[in-house]
C-alpha cells in the first residue's frame, strides 16, 4: 500500500513537472514545429501535412495525460513522431527523474500500439535530408503517404511525360 502511494505521489509530481515543461515547450518551440512541418511537407507533399496531428493527447500506462509532438493515425497504423530538444531530453542535461519519465512516456506509447520515431532538434537543423530519408523509410509504405512518381516535380518520369 505504501509503495502504491509513493508511486502515485511520484506520478503526480511528474505530471505537474510535465505540464510546466509542456507549456514552456509550446511557447518556445514554434521554430522546431515549423521546421518539422516543412521537412514533412518537402518529403511527402504539402497536402499530406493534413494527416499530422500536433500535440495529440494520450494517457500513459499510469493514467496520466501526455501529448505526442506529432501523431499520425492512418488506417490501422499509429505513428508518434517526436522532436527532442537537448534542453528537455538529453540524458546528460536533464534530471534523472525527467529521463526516466521520458522512458515511461515512450514505453507507454509502444505498449498502446504506437510506432515511435524520434529526432533531435539538431538533426532537423543540421541533417534535414537524412531526416527526410528516414521519414520515407519509416512512413513511406503507408498508402496515404506514398509519393507517386507522376507528382514529383524533379522526377525523370514526369520529364519524359512532358516531352511527349
TrEMBL record:
Enzyme Commission numbers on file: 3.1.21.5
Sequence segments annotated as region (Disordered): 1-29
Polar residues compositional bias, start-end: 17-29
GO MF term list: type III site-specific deoxyribonuclease activity
Keyword presence, GTP-binding: no
Biased composition (Basic and acidic residues): 1-16
Keywords: Hydrolase
Protein's UniProt keywords contain Hydrolase: yes
Protein name, UniProt field: Type III restriction enzyme, res subunit
Organism: Heliorestis convoluta
